[in-house]
């Protein structure tokens, strides 16, 4: 069975004023070419299929583009397996799963491998048996990101602090892995773990908008490594774990912020035979978008910028401009830089000798960013509380009010 390991797509993400969906879809098209070239049977997405709190119209658009890219793979009998990550909306993920089960129902009591040619979404810990076209069977243990609703159930109100909650989640996830292994795993068949988790000791530049204190962190020895392959998501930097070559993060498929500027993005191809891996996993590169931070201390430097940086037509750029008031026209300089950096996502404009600067991602605050910030703040503050869903629902009603968004615009 040929398996392609990907993770952290973050469909419909944004960086400053720049929507990232176009870049992400280009990476998906590269992945689709790999699926065809290497005759992949199963593509794994190890969490964070979406970016957190996308609006319904954005989710619809993202699912539509995902369908357009991967429909040939599915129609050819390929299978997509994805788990829920910390940025995936649980309610929407479950809604999609229920819709899939209605459109193409599967009898859970029927023994044997599940059919190919479809998308499987795991919002809860799941055991999944799949087989390739030749009948080779592989067991998948799917472990979504550890949240209270997925792993604690009745214990959701029994913790008194964030540290206590994380400790309970840590224990509950390990117990669930053991339960699935003891109840379902057949030792004569190869098995693959798919999980969205933070393993201590992994190299990271950030946790993509989540602090380590808010996260559930596992030591390298906590989760068993005796799988034919372990496909992790959550950390955006591709790397192996625990001194192995078969336990790894695939990393995000696109550079999502400046912290990832030096990352070489890729996906992982692994072949599983009747006795496990047939060879070492192969790294397949992706043509990720360049991200630059550029400082211009004198407008006279501008003509030489194109010689210093490559692919400025598609690069994401944050720049700082310092100029002398009265000697240069700020608006004319900015228009010139707009042509050189058509995809600048953040900028700071400083008058030489002045302590006042204009730092802005856009001259008018983006209303979508206002909504995203509100949702993110509420989710972080209310995580694990019984009132969370009700308050978020009220917030959505307010955010849907066009007058609220209009009043949120701040002209600089």
UniProtKB/TrEMBL annotation:
Subunit description: Heterodimer of SbcC and SbcD.
Record keywords: DNA recombination, DNA replication, Endonuclease, Exonuclease, Hydrolase, Nuclease
Taxonomy, superkingdom: Bacteria
Domain Calcineurin-like phosphoesterase intervals: 1-237
Residues passing through the membrane, by range: none
Lineage: Bacteria, Bacillati, Cyanobacteriota, Cyanophyceae, Nostocales
Function: SbcCD cleaves DNA hairpin structures. These structures can inhibit DNA replication and are intermediates in certain DNA recombination reactions. The complex acts as a 3'->5' double strand exonuclease that can open hairpins. It also has a 5' single-strand endonuclease activity.
Gene Ontology terms for molecular function: 3'-5' exonuclease activity; endonuclease activity
Pfam families noted in UniProt: Metallophos
Family assignment from sequence similarity: Belongs to the SbcD family.
Record keyword Hydrolase present: yes
GO process terms (BP): DNA recombination; DNA replication
Record has Hydrolase as a keyword: yes
Protein name: Nuclease SbcCD subunit D
């Amino acid at each position: 069975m040929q398996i392609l390991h990907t993770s952290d797509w973050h469909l419909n993400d944004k960086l400053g004023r720049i929507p990232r969906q176009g870049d992400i879809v280009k990476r998906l098209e590269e992945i689709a070419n790999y699926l065809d070239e290497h005759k992949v049977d199963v593509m794994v997405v190890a969490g964070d299929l979406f970016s957190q709190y996308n609006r319904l119209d954005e989710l619809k658009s993202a699912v539509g583009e995902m369908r357009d890219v991967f429909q040939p793979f599915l129609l050819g009998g390929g299978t997509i397996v994805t788990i829920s990550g910390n940025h995936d909306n649980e309610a929407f993920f479950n809604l999609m799963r229920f819709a899939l089960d209605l459109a193409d129902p599967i009898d859970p009591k029927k023994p044997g491998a599940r059919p190919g040619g479809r998308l499987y979404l795991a919002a809860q810990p799941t055991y999944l048996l799949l087989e390739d076209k030749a009948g080779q069977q592989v067991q998948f243990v799917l472990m979504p990101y550890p949240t209270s609703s997925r792993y604690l159930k009745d214990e959701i109100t029994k913790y008194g602090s964030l540290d206590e909650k994380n400790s309970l989640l840590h224990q509950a996830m390990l117990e669930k892995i053991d339960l699935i292994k003891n109840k379902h795993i057949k030792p004569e068949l190869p098995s693959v773990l798919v999980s969205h988790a933070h393993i201590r000791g992994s190299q990271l530049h950030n946790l993509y908008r989540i602090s380590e204190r808010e996260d559930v962190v596992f030591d390298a020895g906590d989760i068993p490594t005796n799988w034919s392959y372990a496909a992790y998501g959550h950390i955006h930097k591709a790397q192996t774990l625990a001194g192995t070559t078969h336990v790894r993060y695939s990393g995000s498929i696109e550079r999502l912020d400046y912290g990832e500027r030096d990352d070489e993005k890729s996906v992982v191809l692994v072949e599983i035979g009747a006795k496990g891996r047939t060879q070492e996993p192969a790294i397949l590169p992706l043509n990720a978008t360049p991200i630059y931070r550029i400082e211009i201390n004198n407008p006279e430097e501008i003509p030489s910028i194109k010689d210093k940086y490559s692919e400025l037509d598609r690069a994401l750029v944050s720049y700082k401009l310092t100029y002398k008031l009265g000697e240069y026209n700020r608006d004319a300089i900015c228009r010139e830089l707009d042509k050189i950096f058509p995809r600048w996502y953040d900028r700071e404009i400083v008058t030489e000798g002045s302590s006042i600067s204009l730092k802005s991602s856009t001259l008018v605050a983006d209303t979508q960013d206002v909504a995203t910030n509100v949702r993110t703040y509420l989710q972080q503050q209310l995580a694990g509380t019984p009132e969370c869903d009700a308050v978020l629902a009220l917030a959505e009603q307010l955010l849907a009010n066009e007058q609220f968004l209009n009043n949120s615009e701040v002209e600089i």
